[in-house]
């Protein structure tokens, strides 16, 4: 009986070691997964903030583009060109009366 009881006592020790090793490995992998998830969550928050800034800039550029498009369309009209030249360059038609001088910039 002494021999049988020694084998029974040794068996639970080895099983206990295997369980410890198993839980140590599982715990290590779990900690790694938690830290990786935490890091990726932070990166996603940064990217979302950056995306918000870029979307705002996109709207500004689209508005600027629309204003340029309307300017191009208006520049096809001879009357608009004449108004722009008179305003920007202070030009007049022959026979026009000028009261005062155009503002110099």
Automatic annotation (TrEMBL):
InterPro entries: FtsL/DivIC (IPR007060). Keywords: Coiled coil, Membrane, Transmembrane, Transmembrane helix. Residues 44-71 form a coiled coil. The chain crosses the membrane at residues 21-38. This is Septum formation initiator family protein.
